[in-house]
Amino acid sequence: MADEVTLLDFWASPFGMRVRIALAEKGVKYEYSEQDSRDKSALLLQMNPVYKKIPRPILFHNGKAVCDSLIIVQYVDEAWMGNAPLLPSDPYQRAQSRFWADFIDKKVYEITRKIWTTKGEELEGAKKDFIECLKLLEGELGDKRYYGGEKLGYVDVAFVPFYCWFYAYEKCGNFNIEKECPKIIAWAKRCMQKESVSKSLEDPKKVYEYVLERRKTLRVD
Question: In this predicted model, what pLDDT tens digit does every residue of 99-155 receive, in sequence order?
């Protein structure tokens, strides 16, 4: 009997893109259910009672729900172990991968949201903090091809979805990410050469159009 897999997600969510990449890397076929970020479905609220929101996706696997993108990616890695692993087998390396994915979750998203939802001094501070985060991530990448070494791994999956938002950050913040952190852009372009990534990420200009609409709603401009 084939696995029944459904992903509840919002198209522009970098968190949902993580799950899409992981499923693609594992060769898992699934149904996709688009969720409105401002009009939560009854199913979303029922199955995600803690967060009650998108952009946090939900994966249904044979009738059981798994919530939160990083937990879902780990679940996908373990549920389909026969395919290329995302997390390293070494316990220390696994711990390090989880640390950096958690860093991305707690730092990058909150900082970058300020780039497109604020202005003035708060915006300038967010840009500075974002570049500092990227430089730390450049240091962790070092001379490796991917954060996972020679192949795409857990930290790559956690981080690369934000790449399709970079254009929106630059337009809203009036700065150039490649000028400040060229190694991050080079890494992201390598990731984009993989079909699992390129087909899972959204068009940066479409994301920017969404951001402009949200800025109007939030009365940022």
Answer: 999 999 999 999 999 999 999 999 999 999 999 999 999 999 999 999 999 999 999
How much is the pTM? 0.91
Which sequence spans correspond to the domains of the chain? 5-79, 91-218
What is the spatial distance between Cα 36 and Cα 9, in angstroms, rounded to a whole number? 8
Helix (H, G, I), strand (E, B) or coil at 133: helix
DSSP string, 53-107: -SSS-EEEETTEEEESHHHHHHHHHHHTTTSPPSS-SSHHHHHHHHHHHHHIIII
What topology is assigned to 91-218 in CATH?
Answer: Glutathione S-transferase Yfyf (Class Pi); Chain A, domain 2 (1.20.1050)
Question: What CATH superfamily is the domain 5-79?
Answer: Glutaredoxin (3.40.30.10)
